[in-house]
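The authors assume throughout that readers already know how a fold can be written as C-alpha cells. For illustration, here is how one protein appears when written out as sequence plus C-alpha cells:
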Amino acid sequence: MKNRARIAAFAAALMWIAGPAAAQECPDYSPTRNPYFGDLHVHTAFSMDAVLVGVETEPSDAYAFAKGAPIPLAPIGRPFFRSALEAQLERPLDFAAVTDHAEFFGEFHLCMVPPADPSDPAAAYNTEFCVNYRAVAIGNRIITTTPGPEISVEVFRAFTAPLLAPVPTRNPICGPGDVDCLARTNLLWQETQDAAQLANDPCAFSAFNAYEWTKVEADPSLTAGAAILHRNVIFRGDSVPPAPISVFEAPKVELLWDQLQLECLDADSSCDVLTIPHSTNQSAGRAFKPVYSADPLPTSPFFAERPLTAEDAEVRAAFEPVVEVIQHKSASECRISMLSEGGVPFLGSDELCDFESSDTNGNRSPAIPNQPLPRLSYVREGLKEGLVQEEALGANPFKLGMLASTDTHNATPGQTSEREFAVTGHIGINDGLLSLRGGITSVAKQRNAGGLAVVWAEENTREALFDAIDRKEVYATSGGRPIVRFFGSWEAPLDLCESPDAIEIADGQGVPMGADLPASPGGPSGNDKPRFLVSSQQDPLGAPLQRIQIVKGWLDENGEAQEAVYEVAGDPNNGASVDVNTCTPQGAGFGSLCSVWEDPDFDPDQRAFYYSRTVENPTCRWNQQYCADTFGDVGQACDAGTPQAYGVDWCCDSTAGHQAWCTNALDDAAQQGLSCGDPGMNPDLEASCCAGNYVDTPTTVQERAWSSPIWYAPVPVSAIEIDIKPLSTTNPVNPMSHAPIPVAILGSDTFDVADVDVTTLAFGPAGAEPIFDLTHWLVYLLSTFDANQDGFVDLVPPFRTDETGIAIGDTEACLTGELLDGTPFEGCDTTRTVPPACGVGFELVLVLPGLLWLRRRTRGSAV
C-alpha cells in the first residue's frame, strides 16, 4: 500500500521533461530549504459544529484571512467586554488547508439550504430535526436572537449522535440509500476544492485540498464523552477522490487508509495523500495503542482488536508521517501524571510536560485536576512505543514528525496570538458569550490559541510543501514564529555554530529533522557518538529565547523504552519572568541560540530518537493578557473590585471559572435528583467538583517549538552460514582444551568472504579472536579454500577453544564480525560439548589447508 515510489518516479519524469528550470520556478527556491508557516486544521461554516456556534464564513473566507484579509466574527454584537467583532492576521500565512468535517456535509446542506419548494412538507429542510438545527445555527449568528449555549449543545449532540455507533449510519433525512446526503456532500466537496484552487498561488501561498475524518469512539475507561481519533486528510495536488471518505464510508482508520489507497493512490498516478492525527491527548489512550481493528468490523461498542503486524506498521507509517502536537484543545507532547497500560498511576520527570495540558480524557469528559491519563495518549509515549514495536516487528508504526495547527472553528487560520485569541477565540458564540468564555473550565483552563506548522521546503508550492511534510522535515510551534533547525550527523565539528556556513555544512554532512541517522562511519564496533546541531532564532514579535533542550527516547538492554531531557543551549535559570499584574516582561534572554551536542550516553546497540524543544522566556497567557489589557494593573483593579463588577471574576481568582462551571454542573445533576456522594453521580463530575478540587488556570506561559525527531537504529545484523570443525558432523568441543578450533565462514552466491573485515571476528560467548593474524596476506590466503565443496571459497580462521567461553552443556556457538563496509553479521552452528576423560588419544584437526595439527585429546570423544 501507499506506493510513493511510483509517484516519485512520475514526478522525476516530469522534471526531466521540463528541464532543470522546473525545480527552480520560485524566486526564493533554496536547496537548503526555506521555513514556511501555515495551519493545516481549519473549520468554516461548512462544518456542522461551526454553523451551530453562529459562524457564517466559508472556505474562501478562510483562505482570504490566511492571506491577510479581515474576517467578521460570530455572533454580531458580541457582548464579551472588549470582545472583537472581526479578526485579522498581523502576519499572513504561507499555506493553509481548510479541513471541514466531511461527515455531515450533506445533512448540514439539507438543513440550511432551502429546497426548490420551501413549503414542501416532505422536504428534509422542513423536518423537526432540521428546523431545530437551523433555529440554533441562525439564532446564534446575532447575539439578540441566540438561543443560548445549553440548547446549542443539545442540538449538537443530537446531530452528531450517529458518530458514537461502532458502524455509524446517516440520519433518515438523507433519504433511501443516503442519496440526498451523498449528492449534497459532493456539492460542498467541490466548493471546497474550488476555494482551494482559487486561493492557491504558487510561490506565494499554497492552499491544500483537505477535509477532516471525524472519528469518536466509545471507551470503557470513559464515564462521559468519547475518545477522539480524528484525522485531517491532506492531498498533494488537484487530484482527489470524487467524494470525501468519511466515517460513514470508513468507520475505522484502517478502512480510511484502504479507501484512500483505492480511490487516490491506485486510481490516479498524480494523486497522493496523507492523514494527520490530532487531539491525541483526548484519545483515552487509543492514539498510539499498537493494535489493528479486527476484520470484519464487530457490532459491539468495544471493538475487537489484534496486535500489529509488520505490514500494519508499514501501512500506518506510510499514511501518517506526522502528528499534530498542539491545537486549541491543548498540547499532546507529554504529561506529568499518567497511567500505565495496566492502569497504574505514575509521574513523569519532565517538568515542562505541564505545558497547556488538558485535564480531560476524551471529548466532553469533565476536567479532573491533575488526574493520571493513559500514557499512549501522548506523542512522546507514542514515539517510545514506536521503538518497542520496531524492535519486535522490524517496522515502526509511530515514526512521527511533529507539527501544530489551530483547529479554529471561526475560519481564522493562524490566529495564534495570545493577545488576539483573548478577544477573538476560535469557536464562535462560545467565545463571544461572557458566561462561557470566563466560566467553563474547557475554555478557561484547557483552551489555548493553538499552534503553527512550519515546513522546511525548497519553495512555496503544494508539491514541495507536501513532500517536506511527508519526509517529516517540519516542526511545531505553540503559536509563535521562531526559526528552528535540527541536524544529526557523526562528524559535525563541536565549534560548528561559529561558522557562517553552519547550516550548509550540517546539511551536507548529516540529516535534517525527520530523517534517520546513517550508519556510523566507524561501524558498530567503533566509538562514534552522534552529534546534533540545533539552532533557534527568536520570533521578532515574540519573547526572547530561554533555552534549547534535546529530548531523547531509547530502548534499554531489556527492550524497555526510556527517556531523558538534556539542556544543550541557553540558561533555564536566567531569572526571566513576567509581572502578571501588567504583563511586563522581566529579565534577559537570547535572540538566538546554537549548539552542537554529542550524546554522552549513546549505546550503538540501542534504538533511539532525538528531538529539540526550544523554550521562550515567560509571558502572560491569553487570559491574564486580557485582564491586563482591559484593566491595567490587575492587582490594583481587583483590589478596587473593577473586574468583579464586569463579571470577570477569574481575573482575580484563577479558579473562578472552574467553580462557576461546577456550580452549573451540580445544579444540573440536582435537577436529576443527584448530589455529591450519591451512587448515581457521575464519578468524573464528583472528582472534579465535589471535593472542591478546582482547576487553577495558569496566568503565564512559556511558548515553545518542537522539532521533528531524528532516529537512530543499530545496523541490521546479516545472517551468514558457518561450519564449526568443518571435517566433523557432530562438532565436539572440550571447553578446557587449549587447542585451536577451526570455524568455516561459508561463501555463497550472495556472500563473498573477501568482503569480511577479519579484524572484527569474534567467536563464542567470550568473543575469542582468531589465533592467527589473518591480515597477513599469506595467512589469509592459506585460510581460504572451499571447505564444504560447494564451489564457493570459504574463510576458515582458528580460535583457541578455552578462550571462546563455550561451557559444558552449550549446544550452539556463534561467530560475529563486520564486512568491510561496516555491516555486521552473525552465524551460528551446533556444538556438542564433551568433558575431559581418562586416557589420551589423538585426532587430526584441519586448521589451515596443507597443515595438519597434532593435538592431544581425551579418550572417548570422537570426530
Residues 5-22, 434-444, 838-863 have pLDDT under 50 and may be disordered. The chain is about 25% helix and 25% strand. The longest helix spans residues 179-199.
